């Protein structure tokens, strides 16, 4: 089947209330008609996602914001002009047309325009906004290839294979207060880049341990094997088969039988692209546990460390 026919078939499934897994530039999404509560409930069931975790609604035209959201101010259009289509999700007050199940009962909705021609064509052909979280079981590794979706989900009407995703980690999520924006989830678009466009709300402390956004749990994005973030001098028993997730090429890789290098030359964007693919391979290998290098917490390194900490949470009692 050609890509065009796939999209036509997928759009029909969305219109009929079914589920389609499709590529975006971040990770693969599991999509349903965002305006149809019966369709959206299937996403929660297929992912075993708790109902308190709201979904991101994907649009293909900036004008669609006004159909879904209230009080859209100038800042939103500035951000959209700079970053959309792209990996930035903005939380905005919702209109009644957005069903409560999409937002977990919140009065706000998360909106994004993905930078992927398959995703954009699918939304356009379906003729409705598409609610789509990552196409994996809740709390597990995000999919950056169609095979990763097949590995985890069975209740999907169609999976569109668009190859490996080009960004590799989930979108940056921000909320807006009158004073400015705050980051709820770090992603490849950094705080500094956003601050270049609109002011930051300095009154809010992030990373103070409180739950800043529903669904942002301490444990998330976890491989089925225990994962520890490597500290220099750490010792791991030889009885265990250990997989090593290295940030870049280094001599330690010689000591492990199973190694994944995120970026030979230590490029953070490249590391982000490869992160989930490498974790999927390690999870599928015969290792008993995974040790991961920390990466520098600058730029997209902030988002990579966020994912690694969540992947290691509750499993950091080593072995
Ligand atoms: P994902 O699982 O990648 O679809 O990401 C969705 C995440 O966006 C959720 O887990 C929340 O953390 C965040 N989110 C979605 N909607 C809202 C909202 N209305 N308010 C705050 N955070 C939200
Ligand atoms: Mg997810």
Describe the structure.
With 319 residues, the chain is α/β, with parallel strands linked by helices. It has two domains: 3-195, DHBP synthase; 227-312, Threonylcarbamoyl-AMP synthase, C-terminal domain (Rossmann fold, 3-Layer(aba) Sandwich), CATH 3.40.50. It is built from ten helices and 13 strands. The chain has helices at 3-15, 37-47, 64-68, 74-83, 100-103, 117-126, 146-152, 191-195, 268-284, 301-312, and strands at 20-22, 29-33, 56-58, 88-93, 108-112, 130-131, 158-159, 172-177, 180-185, 227-229, 242-246, 258-261, 289-292. The strands form two sheets. Strands 7-1-2-6-3-5-4-8-9 form a nine-stranded mixed β-sheet, with helices on both faces. Strands 10-13-11-12 form a four-stranded parallel β-sheet. A hairpin with a 6-residue loop joins strand 1 and strand 2. Helix 1 crosses helix 6. It is globular. The relative contact order is 0.15. The site of adenosine monophosphate has 20 residues, from strand 5 and strand 9. Residues 53-56, 91, 103, 106, 108-110, 133-134, 170, 173, 184-185, 213-216 line the site of adenosine monophosphate (AMP).
């Amino acid at each position: 089947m050609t890509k065009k026919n796939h999209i036509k078939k997928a759009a029909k499934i969305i219109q009929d209330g079914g589920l389609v897994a499709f590529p975006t530039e971040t990770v693969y999404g599991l999509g349903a008609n965002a305006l149809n509560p019966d369709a959206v409930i299937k996403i929660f069931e297929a992912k075993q996602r708790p109902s308190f975790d709201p979904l991101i609604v994907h649009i293909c035209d900036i004008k669609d914001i006004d159909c879904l959201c209230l009080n859209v101010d100038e800042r939103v259009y500035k951000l959209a002009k700079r970053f959309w289509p792209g990996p930035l999700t903005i939380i905005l007050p919702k209109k009644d047309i957005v069903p409560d199940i999409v937002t977990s009962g919140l009065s706000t909705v998360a909106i994004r325009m993905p930078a992927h021609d398959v995703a954009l064509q699918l939304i356009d052909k379906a003729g409705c906004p598409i609610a789509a979280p990552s196409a994996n079981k809740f709390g597990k590794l995000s999919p950056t290839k169609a095979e990763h979706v097949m590995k985890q989900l069975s209740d999907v009407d169609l999976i569109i294979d668009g190859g490996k995703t080009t960004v590799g980690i989930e979108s940056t999520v921000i909320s807006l207060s009158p004073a400015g924006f705050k980051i709820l989830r770090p992603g490849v678009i950094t705080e500094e880049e956003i601050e270049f466009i609109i002011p930051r709300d300095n009154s809010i402390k992030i990373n103070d341990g409180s739950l800043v956004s529903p669904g942002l749990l301490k444990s998330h994005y976890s491989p089925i094997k225990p994962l520890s973030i490597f500290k220099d001098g750490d010792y791991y028993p030889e009885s265990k088969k250990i997989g090593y997730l290295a940030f870049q090429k280094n001599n330690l890789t010689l000591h492990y039988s199973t190694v994944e290098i995120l970026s030979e030359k230590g490029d953070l964007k490249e590391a982000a692209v490869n992160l989930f693919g490498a974790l999927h391979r390690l999870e599928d290998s015969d290792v008993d546990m995974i040790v991961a290098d920390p990466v520098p917490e600058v730029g997209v390194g902030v988002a990579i460390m966020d994912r690694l900490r969540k992947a290691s949470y509750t499993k950091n009692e080593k072995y």
